[in-house]
Amino acid sequence: MPQHDELRVLLVDDDPAVLRSYTRILARDGVTVETASNGKEAAERVMAASFDVIVSDIVMPEMTGIEFLKAIRAHDLDVPVILITGEPALESAVRAVEYGAFRYLTKPVAAQELWETAIRAARLHKMATLKREALELPGNDGRGLGERAALEVRFTWGMSLMWMAFQPIVGWRDRRVFGYEALLRSDEPLMNSPANILDAAERLGRLHELGRAVRAKVAAAAEAPESAGFRLFVNLHSADLNDEELYSAGAPLSKIANRVVLEVTERASLYGVKNVAACVARLKALGFQMAVDDLGAGYAGLTSFTQLEPGVAKLDMSLVRGVDADSRRQSIVRSMKKLCDELGMMVIAEGVETPAERDMLAELGCDLFQGYLFAKPQRGFTAPRW
Ligand code: G
Ligand code: MN
C-alpha cells in the first residue's frame, strides 16, 4: 500500500454514524482525519489549521455545506472540497460549482469512490501547493500569489458593492430615536459578511482603505435629511487609529464630528496602536465622542475605560441575551450601569431581541437600546417599532 503521508482530511457531517464510517474508510495509509459535526465548527477548524481536502455533507443544521463552502472560499480559494448529499438538487449543485467544489457525490457513497476521490483531490492540491511554493519568492507572507491576486479581485469587488446599513439606537422611556449605528454590508456574494471583508482587508494590508471608504460613506449618508439631528455611531478597527486620515480636519467624517460617536471594540487588542491616549485626545479635539463597543465580551477587561475615556459604553449582546431569566447577567448589568453612571458614561444595551429583555434592562436602569426588537440594520434611516 502506498503511504499518503501527511495528508490531512477534514470530515464534516451532523450524523455521528456517518462520521465514524467515513473515518474508517479514510483514516489509513498515513492519512489523518479530523471531524466536525457542523459547518460552524468546521469553519473554525479551517481558520485554525490547513487541510489537504475537506469532505462535507450538504444538509446540516446551523450552516449548510454550501454556506460552509462559501465561508471557506472567503478564506482559502484553493482547498478542494468534496460535497456529499442524500438529496441531490440542481440548486445546490449549481452553488457547489459556483463556489468551486471539487466534486459533488450522492449518498450512499461507495467506500472505494470516497477514498479515491478524496486522495486524488488531496494529492492534486498538495502538488499545486508545492509547485506554487517552488515558484514563489520568499517573504510574501507565505500565501500563494495566485490566491492573493484572487483575494485582491474579490476584495475590490467587495468594496465596490459595499454599502452602509443603519440600525436605530432608541431611548425607551421617551420612545425617541437617539441615533443610528452604521454597519458595513456588501453585495459581493463571497464578501457579504463584514467579518469577511475585514478579514480580507487585514490579509491584504488594505484596512486603511476600507476604513476611509466606510467613513466617507457614513459622511455621505449623513447628508440625508432623514438623518438630521441624530447621532451616528461608526465602528473603528484598531488599525484605523494608526491612519492619519482619521485625524485630518478636512476628512469627510471630521466635518460632522460633533454628530459622530466612534466605537472601538473591546474584543480586539489596542496593542498595535502607538499611543492610544494621544489618538483619543486628537479625535476628541476634532469633536468626536468615543464609545467602548462589545463591553463584557472583552478580553481587555476594563482597561479600555482608562485608555479611551469613552463617553458611551455599549453592553455586548452576550450580556443582554436572556438577561430577564438570569440573575448573574442581571448583577453584571446592574454593576456595569452603576460604574458607568459614576464615570459619567452613557450605557447602550445592544442586541435586544425580546420585550422581556427590554423590560428587565429598563428595570436595571438602562434606557438606551439597540436590537432586532426595534429594527434590524437596513438601508436608510428606518424608524423603530415600539
Ligand atoms: O460588534 P458590533 O456591536 O458593532 O456588531 C453589531 C452586530 O450585531 C451587527 O452585525 C448587527 O447586525 C448585529 N445585531 C444588531 N442587533 C442585533 C440583535 O438584536 N440580535 C443579534 N443577534 N444581532 C444583532
Ligand atoms: Mn458596534
How would the blueprint of this fold be written?
Blueprint lengths: L6 E6 L3 H11 L4 E6 L2 H10 L4 E5 L7 H9 L7 E5 L4 H9 L4 E4 L4 H25 L9 H16 L1 E10 L4 E11 L7 H11 L2 H15 L9 E6 L23 E6 L10 H11 L2 E7 L7 H6 L3 E4 L1 H4 L6 H16 L3 E4 L5 H9 L4 E3 L16
Parallel strand pairs: 1-2, 1-3, 3-4, 4-5, 7-8, 8-9, 9-10, 10-11, 11-12, 12-13
Antiparallel strand pairs: 6-7, 6-13
Helix pairs in contact: 2-3, 6-7, 7-8
Bound molecules: guanosine-5'-monophosphate and manganese (II) ion (MN).
Number of strands: 13
Morphology: globular
Q: Compute the average pLDDT.
A: 89
The helix/strand order is EHEHEHEHEHHEEHHEEHEHEHHEHE
State the share of residues found in helices, binned by percent.
25-40%
For the record, the CATH class of the largest domain is Alpha Beta
Radius of gyration, CA atoms, in whole angstroms: 24 Å
Can you tell me the residue ranges where pLDDT is under 50 for at least 5 consecutive residues? 137-142
Identify the CATH homologous superfamily of the largest domain.
EAL domain
Describe the structure.
This protein is an alpha/beta fold. It has two domains: 8-135, Response regulator (Rossmann fold, 3-Layer(aba) Sandwich); 148-369, EAL domain (TIM Barrel). The protein is built from 13 helices and 13 strands. The strands form two sheets. Strands 6-7-8-9-10-11-12-13 form an eight-stranded mixed β-barrel, surrounded by four helices. Strands 2-1-3-4-5 form a five-stranded parallel β-sheet, sandwiched between helices. Strand 3 (53-57), helix 3 (65-73) and strand 4 form a beta-alpha-beta unit. The radius of gyration is 24 Å and the shape is globular. The structure holds guanosine-5'-monophosphate and manganese (II) ion (MN). Manganese (II) ion (MN) binds at residues 181, 235, 263, 293.
